[in-house]
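Intended use. Records like the one below are meant for learning the mapping from a protein sequence to its folded structure. Do not use them to infer anything beyond what is encoded.
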Amino acid sequence: MGNQVKASTTSESRLAELSAFNVEPFIVAIEHLSENLRTFLQANVLIINIPSGNIDAFGSLVTEIERSDIEKVILVSSTSVYEDNNQTISESDGEESQQSPLLAIENLFRNSGKFKTTIVRFGGLIGYSRTPGRFFGPGRVVTNPDSKVNLVHRDDCLGIISRIVEQGVWGEVFNCCADTHPTKREFYTKAAKSSGLPVPEFEDSETKSFKIISNQKVKRILNYEFIHPDLMKIKFEQSS
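Structure written out for the chain above:
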């Protein structure tokens, strides 16, 4: 038996599109929370994926969640919360940037006593319409080309979120990115060629600042096997 799903958007034009996927659509804008939010929050699990660094707005959202009956939250964050340290970073290393608004937002959810939150820190999103060969168009230069990439395919984003809900794993923080970490030069050259696009221009630099995000915890605790573990083996859409 399937789950009843609600979905939010900030655009009226997307309501019909969401309805076509057999979900109940809502307009929810984090900067302007409205009365319909209370109906939207009538759910067992809330998944939050809002690309905003507005700490005050997230604070207001947390207050509304605390007023609801929701007990379980998945908050989508980003591996950009970590500082570059030219090393491999796991969740327990304490390498988060203390100035990052993402960390402040995570803490708003983590510190609530009314619900439990699992935080998923995704690497850069690729797959389907997110074709990395198109990330750097004419005139755009790839800086720091010999630094490592931390990317994740959309299939694995959805797979990890589903696994968290299915297994009921709450109160955790997970890094979510592919097993491999090629350099920008290696990956974006391969991605462009596989999509039939021009190879981007690279700006060479003697300094190399990077981080390598470890995904060992998500594999160990969730027993998750990545669908796309090797970034260099992913096939991307051809350019039309």
